[in-house]
Amino acid sequence: MIGAIIGDIAGSTYEFNNIKTKRFPLPAPGSCYTDDSLMTIAVARALMRAGNGGFSAALTEEMREMARRYPHPMGGYGGRFESWLTSPEPKPYGSYGNGSAMRVSPCGEAATSLEQALVLARQSSEITHNHPQGIKGAQAVASAVYLARAGAGKKAIRDLMETHFYPLKRTVDEIRPFYSFDTTCQGTVPQAITAFLESVSFEDALRTAVSLGGDSDTLAAITGAIAWPFYAQNGMDGAMRRLRAIAMALLPRTLRSIVDEWEGRYGIC
């Protein structure tokens, strides 16, 4: 989860002011958490609260409560999602937007098997993003997070992605020149996974994701969610510790306490 939050903050200032290079301040002045972090934390809280059952209902309540407490995050909420947040009877609305993928990382971290990661990801997506592509994006990210946390190598992660989710035929350098703003799962998740696969460190993963342009906070949140457990397996380097400290300082105290509780249960990676 913390990798997704750090990535969200890293990409926040470039979402509507894209930068096509890996050379930029990290984080840039004015960077802040967005709805990506808020909803990721809501997923984590719902998982901690739900225990062995009732995750979907708990998540619906947690996401709506999070939006009530933080109604105007940097970048705002998507239009259809905002309607869901305020609806007297919230129902899924057939979305294949990348919101299902950007918030799902706690499902991969809490899962004790790949099968469970897939089930939790589906449940986390279906309450809003019940289109097959929305579910697919969430399951791809949760699966990659689970494998990274379990110590799988990049080849194993790539093989799973290409076998069950997306062809990853283009390199970052082939994607970057022609990539533009895209808020769909199918236009965000493969690119974010590719950024992770080509990275050499957690910081490099974030820089690579942001450098693609597009919906940069969500791209970096997804990339960071996978890269954090992967690179943290052998201990956090100085850049990871620095970026985590900055991200935690930018979160309100209540949100920091949820992150702390989550890491107390599941570890920092």
How many DSSP H or I helices?
15
Strand content: under 5%
Can you give the helix content as a percent range?
A: 55-70%
User: How many β-strand runs?
Assistant: 0
Shape, please?
globular
- In terms of structural class, how would the helical and strand content be classed? mainly alpha
Rg value: 16 Å
Overall pLDDT, averaged?
97
Mind describing the biggest β-sheet? none
List the helices and strands in order: HHHHHHHHHHHHHHH
> How far is the N terminus from the C terminus?
8 Å
Poorly predicted regions: none
Concise structural overview:
The chain has 269 residues and is an all-alpha fold. It has 15 helices and no strands.
Describe the structure.
The structure is a single chain. The model has no long low-confidence stretch (mean pLDDT 97). Helix 12 (202-211) runs antiparallel to helix 13 (216-232). The chain has 15 helices and no strands. The chain has 269 residues and is an all-alpha fold. The protein has helices at residues 2-12, 35-50, 55-69, 79-86, 99-102, 105-110, 114-126, 132-149, 154-164, 172-175, 189-198, 202-211, 216-232, 238-250, 253-266.
